[in-house]
Amino acid sequence: MGKLDAPRNKVIFIVLLSIGFTLAMYFVVNYSLSQQSTTFARLIPEEAYIIILHDIFNKTLSDLRNITFDDLQGKFTSQYVMVDGDGNIYKANKDSHETFQVINKTNEPITGGSHFGWEIVSNGSKYYIDSTSGQIITIVNASNSQINK
Questions:
Q1: Alpha-carbon span 45 to 29, nearest angstrom
Q2: Do residues 97 and 82 lie in contact, with contact meaning Cβ atoms separated by under 8 Å?
């Protein structure tokens, strides 16, 4: 009987070690998911507007270097939104990414998928800029036509 105890003890030890490791990994993953992500820097609306000036209106980088946030006052309005893969635009909370009611509809995003970003309204046109990558998601022109750039 003594010979059977040694393998049984090894099996029990391995099972307990596996359960302990699984629980430890569960708590580590749960903790890391509950923390505010600091790895992705989010654009502020003024930065999104500068992207529009560069990518849409072809302003040079040297022109943009001289612009201050005070210069941008009153040139646009903004709100944080989520554009889903079907082109539905939801009002969103920039801190929690909670989405609310549908506020607009556009074509599918250029890159596909869903994006959280800024809706920048300037001269009646609406520009949607991804808040982490700075890419243009889609554009809704003032003439009520919907286009993707």
A1: 32
A2: yes
Could you list the residue range(s) of the whole structural domain that residue 108 is in?
45-147
121-149 b/e (C-beta count within 10 Å ≥ 16 → b): ebeebbbbbbbeebebbbbbeeeeeeeee
State the average pLDDT over residues 15-43: 82
Quote the pLDDT of residue 36.
62
**Dihedral sign (CA 118, 102, 74, 140):** positive
Q: Which pair of tokens denotes residue 31?
A: 């903790």
Strand pairing report for 77-83 and 88-92: antiparallel
**In this structure, how many other beta carbons lie within 10 angstroms of the beta carbon of residue 33?**
8
Does residue 51 share a domain with residue 98? yes
Residues 45-103 have pLDDT tens digits of 898 999 999 988 888 888 888 888 888 888 899 999 999 988 899 999 888 888 888 98
Residue 73 lies in a domain: yes
Which residues, listed in sequence order, are joined to residue 79 by a DSSP beta bridge?
A: 119
